[in-house]
């Protein structure tokens, strides 16, 4: 009886799907909000903060044949993946677990996004000085970046728990038989 109550409250696949949908909706909402928050301080432009959507557009349109393009353009890929992922999880993968490759891609993209403040921790980093506008401290990174990163981590967590919930649902079906 105790196991049955636990199943009905926590492991039940229908309840798990509803919980998953809510978390994905929250993550997508947080991602959307991050595009309108101040994300990066431009010290050579007076006292202007770039909003997240400006940062996203700069990364998307910055395509030259140098190291900066190779570093900044994948941020655009991160945005596209993080917008499409909840939609795919709510539709195509609604009743199945996402492919392992999706989890690997998410981890790689999050590691790339986390590298941005790490580069700012080092004041003498030639890679940052090469930009030529004085981006040298972590204080230049605004709240929008951290909200954006939090939404990405929440989506990764949703993907990982979806795999666990799918296995749990399979085990629960076997438990009922």
Which short descriptors sum up this protein?
single chain; 177 residues; mainly alpha; 7 helices
Description:
With 177 residues, the protein is mainly alpha-helical. It has one domain (2-7, 19-176). 71% of the residues lie in helices and 5% in strands. The protein contains 7 helices and 2 strands. The protein has helices at residues 2-11, 13-34, 52-61, 67-90, 100-121, 126-129, 143-176, and strands at 38-42, 48-51. A two-stranded antiparallel sheet has the order 1-2. β1 (38-42) and β2 form a beta hairpin. The radius of gyration is 20 Å and the shape is elongated.
Shape: elongated
Please count the beta strands (DSSP E, at least 2 residues each).
2
Percent range of helical residues? over 70%
Tally of individual domains: 1
> What does the main sheet amount to?
2 strands, antiparallel
Class by alpha and beta content:
mainly alpha
The total of helices stands at 7
Strand content: 5-15%
What is the overall pLDDT average? Answer: 76
């Amino acid at each position: 009886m105790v196991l049955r109550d636990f199943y009905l409250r926590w492991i039940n696949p229908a309840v798990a799907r509803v919980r998953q949908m809510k978390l994905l909706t929250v993550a997508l909402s947080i991602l959307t909000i991050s595009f309108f928050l101040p994300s990066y301080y431009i010290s050579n432009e007076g006292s202007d903060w770039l909003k997240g959507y400006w940062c996203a557009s700069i990364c998307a349109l910055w395509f030259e044949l140098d190291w900066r393009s190779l570093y900044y353009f994948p941020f655009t890929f991160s945005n596209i993946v993080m917008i499409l992922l909840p939609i795919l999880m709510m539709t195509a993968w609604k009743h199945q677990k996402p492919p392992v490759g999706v989890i690997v891609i998410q981890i790689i993209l999050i590691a790339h996004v986390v590298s941005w403040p790490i580069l700012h921790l080092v004041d003498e980093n030639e890679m940052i000085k090469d930009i030529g506008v004085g981006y040298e401290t972590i204080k230049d990174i605004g709240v929008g970046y951290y909200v954006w990163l939090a939404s990405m981590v929440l989506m990764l967590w949703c993907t990982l728990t979806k795999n666990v919930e799918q296995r749990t649902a399979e085990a629960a079906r076997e438990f009922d038989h």
